[in-house]
Amino acid sequence: MRNGPCGPWTSSAGSDSVGRVRVAIIGAGPTGLFLGGALHRRGHAVTIVDRDGGPEPDGSWPRKGVMQFHHAHVFRPPIADALARELPEGLHRWVDVGAELVKNPGTGEVAGIRSQRSTFDRALREVVAAQPGLTLLTGHVRAVWRVDGVAIGLDVDGTPVPAELVIDASGRSSRVTRDLGEREGFGGDCGLAYVDRLYRLRPGADPGPLTSPVFWTGDFRGYQVYVFLHEQGIFSTIIMRHGRDAELKLLRHDAAYDAACAAIPPLAEWTDPTRAEPIASVFPGGSLLNHYRGQRSADGRPPLRGLVSVGDAVATTTPSFGRGVSLALMQAERLLADIDQHGADLDAVRDSFDGWCAGEMAPWVRDHIEMDTGRAARWAGADVDLSAPLPSDLVMAAAQQDPTIAARLGPYLAMEAGPATVAPLQEAARRVYETGWRPPYAEGPSRDELARIVSSAL
Fold first, then answer.
1. Are residues 292 and 282 in the same domain?
2. What span, in angstroms and rounded, lies between the C-alpha atoms of 161 and 156?
């Protein structure tokens, strides 16, 4: 028996001689579900807690409080690879409920997965919840129980859930661990915002233009546009703007968004009423963040021993390259490897994971900060700054002029290697921009023209 903050804490034996650990996971999003399922298969006792009880009896899934659940997502090859390694039946179920694996015709490898986020989460939840002995608990985590600076479980609606290891997979703005203080890191609001809308292709209609197997993107004067193709003819259109652009904030209204789509040629092609129909109103997005948080406070000490944060609670990037779920599952696989190696030595698990994240996750966040900062500056009229390192998006754009750059971008684009692989391409890209060449804008209205179109539609 151990005493928690509110009285006796009765528990069975904790970790055993072979390193099996009792684990409580906060959050049943992709990170929490993936980790929970994989840890349970390794013999650990796992409880996953989330306020959301899953899909409703009628099949709908509001997923209140998880804004990004309803927004557009890109699913990259590392996600299918991670599932194939740890939860292969999760990958099979994802395909069964509609996901479409798009394969490279030359290699046969997965080049992307067409799927809505809700389809992905639904499949993963079904598979994990069906594992005998794993507990998927619906409830509100009020606090992490602790004794003398050590996490000993969760307070779920006043009921203790004992654990030796508490994993915070509750997302980028977790309130559960907020009382423990700010963890050391960097980043914040990137200065950009977006809105998106879901559509479905009409029977027999072909998709519009694509620049990859699963999406299309185009830069315009003062804003950016994406189209993400999901499963069974469902797709999302996205318009990204400066976060302080009050006029384009009106895009949150359906009539304004419709007018914008009609005026932007690629979106007009995708959303032509003879080709597609909207299946939901516009989804306004919240502030977009690029932030990184390690496992320790500014004084170098962990907030609690036996507590590890993972997923968006460690690294959050803007959706412009669809890296979010991939980065989360990359972290999850690393944390699994650390638990496999160190077992019940939870300090070693935390420190090994933290060191890896600093080397492998933080650079992705810095990469996005540099790209988004540069993009916002160019939208405001700034030229390419040749006195500073070029952000990765400008290096990629220079590949239009120098094929030797394009030939070496593959590992970075596929997330097989980190942003450091772009650094050797800096000089070649700089030579392109020194000629005076600049990435061409896509055909369509400028930001000011789009603002007038949006305003006149209301």
1. no
2. 7
